[in-house]
Amino acid sequence: MTATGHTATGHTATGHTATGHTATGDAATGAPPAIELAGVAKDYHSRGRAVPAVSRIDLAIGPGEFFSLLGPSGCGKSTTLRMIAGFEEPTRGRILLQGRDVTAVPPNRRDVNLVFQSYALFPHLDVAGNVAFGLRRRGVKGRELRERVGTMLDLVELSELAERRPRELSGGQQQRVALARALVNRPAALLLDEPLGALDLKLRQTMQIQLKAIQREVGITFIYVTHDQGEALTMSDRIAVMNRGRVEQLASPREIYERPRTRFVAGFIGTSNLLRRTVRAVDAAGPGGRAMVVLDAGADERLSAPLHPQMGPLRTGDQVELTVRPEKIEMSATRPDGPCCALRGRIVEVVYLGTYTTYTVATHGGTEITVFWQNSTDSTNVAERGEEIWLSWLPEHSYVLPESADEEPSTPRSGGPDPGGPPEGDAPRRNGEPAAGAAAQTPTATAAHPVSP
Amino acid sequence: MTSLDSAPPRLAPARPGGGRGGRLGERLLHAYTWLILLWLVLPIIVMIVFGFNDRVGKRNNTWNGFTLRWWGELFAIPDLTTALVNSLTIALLSTAVATTLGTLMGLALGRHTFRGRGGVELLMFANIAAPEVVLGASLLSLFITMGVPRGYLTILIAHIMFNISYVAVVVRARLAGFDSSVEEAARDLGAGPFTTFRLVTLPLILPGVLSGALLAFAMSIDEYVITTFNAGSTLTFPLWVFGATRVGVPPQVNVMATIIFVVGVLLALGNALLLRRRQI
Ligand SMILES: Nc1ncnc2c1ncn2[C@@H]1O[C@H](COP(=O)(O)OP(=O)(O)O)[C@@H](O)[C@H]1O
Ligand SMILES: [Mg+2]
Question: Are residues A251 and A318 in the same domain?
């Protein structure tokens, strides 16, 4: 989505908090959103105990949108999708399809179709029989049935295999049958639960492009569940990043990547450097009328960053975390001039990766910072291991996030319900920020490992 | 045996006769296997052969020459024919009812967790494990207490009773590894609960249902003990044959048994083929 109002240089637009929601229904035309979740929550019951799988979700997904639910395994993505499809009943909240409340409507009478993670093809029917199943239930028969099935099989390039049984197909072919079987019904929304999860990398990448092309062609709303951030960034118009049954951030891929709202999002999407610092001063009217936070730094060093737009006010002495992406950082031998952030450091690791080189730089505070350096012109490294260098970046390329107060050192990556019971909705919140416990999730494998000073 | 033949070579010098001993062991095993097979098949062969015996006198136990006469006079003994018809109709009816109920029971046990599931399961296995004498006698006292006259209907009820458990066990076994997401897929594609059962669940468990039905039919057609308690004056094929042993079993019995046996074997083979063809 380009509506977020900022360019590739990362120039920040004011008031972008609202722009992340442009695709939700069109207020001007009055068309209702394709799908709306209002305060939806789901508890599972196991051995007499209620286990929250989805804590509270509010979403509005616009017609024709490619919407992704992204999050680690066990964060409640499938549960959310299954509630939309009608296989799970929400414990609280309402689900609306095109403005109509369907919370109590059984799955066979909801105008959405689900592509199952396991495909769930009918083993006793051939490919054409699988694809025709939904149409037959709607009373489509004869020529129209044959034509629609044929068109759909053409679209997913399976016409040759129409008479095969599912077990005679490869994984990728089965996946396309599952897609065709759902799409042929022209549902108001197509729900996909990690549809590419079982495919190998190469096929997955091809299918990502094909899926996106098919979505554009048919113009149907897609809700796409994945734990693969690359997949979500590639295909989506908007992404809801989920953690522990909550949406941590809902925005366009660019917004999510460049302005992660929580520490969890910063760690889960791409690689982020996180610097834990103390607030030295808050300049309420910084450049462009935005609040700038000045952080503790060494002599001639300089650290300042805008406050994240959705974060509450800060005071001098507060502990915060500054986040900056590795590709936004410049390296130089001498202290750079200008109003940029500047930190001194020593290079501890250099890894050449073809298109770019990864530098690991230890600052004087002890934090290790990762830098991606594009290998565009020079084939030699700009700096060698052990060298003292300066790191610099524009303040607007970084953000200050609240420091997670009660960080658990070894939260399981699955994010499953923790034995002590995760903090419920009554935990203190700031300005729409998720409860601190939820934000304190350990970043996943993609995150850099910042060393606390 | 192969395990001896392929023993490590370093053992060979220590046991010079090992190779020959192995061959002898193998021969003994072969002989033993054939003996067992013969033991199992011989009564059946005798039964079939004596259906072609040109019998003299009342006893049909000495070979007297080949004839097809009994095949032609298959229904010459009215009581025997009635008994056979009783047996066949009871087997068919009890199979139909028990397969329907047993399939539902197997589905409930294999797919859902509910209060009292353990109890139902226990009851089902108790029904299979209990001695037939006990089942027959207790059913009889139940019928007497309730004042139900013994006859065709009580035999049918008894057969349905013991067949349900067999069908339920077989269907339940078939459900192991059943991926219920295909049923969800059917619901998702617009099929109501009943259509989903008809178009997805039933076709997928059909091999199990057929196996169960076959087993039920086989159990019913030759049931003696429970039947004899609850038959009153009605006769089934096994009851008639047992009664006839005292005066001499007519060769028609051999012919009928041969036909039942052959049909049974064909059905079992067909079911096995079906199972192999639709490995799902
Ligand atoms: N049927 C169920 N019964 C009990 N707990 C469940 C059930 N399904 C999911 N859960 C739990 O709910 C949480 C969310 O699951 P799920 O929605 O499948 O996560 P995801 O799809 O994001 O991996 C997990 O902790 C999982 O263990
Ligand atoms: Mg899932």
Answer: no
Overall pTM surpassing 0.80 (yes/no): no
In Å, how far is B200's CA from the nearest CA of chain A? Answer: 7
A223, A316: one domain: no
Range of the domain at A256: 2-111+187-262
User: For ligand 1, which residues put their CB under 6 angstroms from it?
Assistant: A 44, 46, 51, 53, 71, 73-79, 416-417
Q: Can you give the three-state secondary structure of B132-159, one letter per residue?
A: HHHHHHHHHHHHHHHCCCCCHHHHHHHH
Residues A204 and A236 in one domain: yes
C-alpha pair distances (Å), A375 with each of A168, A332, A351, A382, A387: 46, 15, 12, 10, 19
B188 chain-A contacts, CB cut-off 8 A: 85-87, 107-108, 113-114, 182
- Residue ranges of alpha helices (H) inside A252-399 are 253-258, 263-268
Same domain, A241 and A270: no
Higher pLDDT, A444 or A401: A401
Query: Domain boundary at A229, A262, A295, which?
Result: A262
Contact yes or no for B109/B121 (Cβ under 8 A): yes
Q: Who among B184, B189, B203 is closest to A133 (CB)?
A: B189
- A69 with A197, same domain: the answer is yes
Task: Summarize pLDDT for B70-101 with one digit per residue, the tens.
Answer: 888 888 889 899 999 999 999 999 999 999 99
Among protein residues, the one whose CA lies closest to atom 16 of ligand 1: A76
Q: Is residue A126 part of a domain?
A: no
Across the interface, do A120 and B184 touch by the CB < 8 Å criterion?
A: yes
Q: Where are the alpha helices (DSSP H) in B50-77?
A: 69-72
Residue B182 Cα to ligand 1 middle (Å): 19
Rounded distance from Cα A53 to ligand 1 centre (Å): 6
Whether A116 and chain B come into contact, CB under 8 Å, resolves to yes
Architecture of domain B75-278: Orthogonal Bundle (1.10)
Q: How far is the CA of A417 from the centre of ligand 1 (A)?
A: 9
Q: Considering only CB atoms, which chain A residues are within 8 Å of B275?
A: none
Q: What type of residue sits at position B196?
A: T
| Identity of the residue in B182, B190, B192 whose CB atom sits nearest the CB atom of A122 | B182
> Is A449 part of any domain?
no
Q: Are A366 and A451 in contact (CB under 8 A)?
A: yes
How many Å apart are CA B39 and CA B59, to the nearest integer?
A: 23
Parts of chain B with a pLDDT under 50: 1-18, 280
Report chain A's mean pLDDT, rounded to a whole number.
Answer: 80
> Which ligand is in closest contact with the Cα of A79?
1
Distances (CA, A) of B133 to B91, B144, B230, B261: 20, 16, 11, 25
For ligand 2, a single-atom ion, the residues with CB < 5 A are A 78
The structural domain count of chain A equals 2
Indicate the residue among A364, A380, A400 that finishes a domain. A400
Q: Which residues of A touch B182 (CB under 8 A)?
A: 120-123
Residue A310 within a domain: yes
| Same domain, yes or no: A273 and A229 | no
**Of A69-83, A241-255, B28-42, B68-82, where does mean pLDDT reach its minimum?**
B68-82
Q: Find the distance separating the first CA and the last CA of chain A, reported in whole Å.
A: 38
Same domain, yes or no: A301 and A368: yes
**CATH number for A396:** 2.40.50.140
Q: Do B185 and A185 touch (CB under 8 A)?
A: no
Q: Which residue intervals of chain B bear CATH 1.10.3720.10?
A: 75-278
Contacts of A185 in chain B (CB under 8 A): 189-190
Looking at this predicted complex, what is its ipTM? Answer: 0.73
